[in-house]
Design brief:
Order of helices and strands: HHHHHH
Number of helices: 6
Oligomer: single chain
InterPro entries: MetalloPept_cat_dom_sf, Peptidase_M13, Peptidase_M13_C
Protein name: Peptidase M13 C-terminal domain-containing protein
Number of strands: 0
GO molecular function: metalloendopeptidase activity
Largest sheet: none
Number of domains: 1
Domain Peptidase M13 C-terminal: 1-108
Radius of gyration: 16 Å
Family: Belongs to the peptidase M13 family.
Helix content: 55-70%
Length: 110
């Protein structure tokens, strides 16, 4: 399931980025950004949106049960695992090479 997360993230980001690149001026002229979000690029907002959908509190016991019985990793690892291995994320947020969110060696699938 984690591999599916990464594949879906990559496909959706590539489609998003293609649309944004082709229509950047129109996007900035037509869309009103939420207050306090104007400093983010469209790519950064994409990744923030991706992470936001997994944002929830789960207890340590719930994490344990999820690991033992579930097919998905806990939410924190679904976000950080996928994004830390995604070069476009590291580039969008200028993460230093070797940091937690931009390891020197990434798990690349395609």
């Amino acid at each position: 399931e984690d591999i599916g997360d990464i594949a879906g993230l990559k496909a959706s980001f590539n489609a998003f980025n293609r649309i944004v690149t082709q229509n950047l001026n129109k996007i900035y002229n037509d869309i009103k950004l939420l207050p306090n979000f104007s400093q983010y690029t469209p790519q950064q907002l994409f990744f923030l949106s991706y992470a936001q959908k997994w944002c929830r509190y789960i207890t340590p016991n719930q994490v344990r049960v999820k690991i033992l019985r579930g097919v998905h990793s806990p939410e924190k690892y679904r976000v950080n695992g996928a994004l830390s291995n995604f070069a476009d994320f590291s580039q969008a947020f200028d993460c230093p090479v070797g940091s937690a969110m931009n390891p020197g060696v990434k798990c690349e699938m395609w």
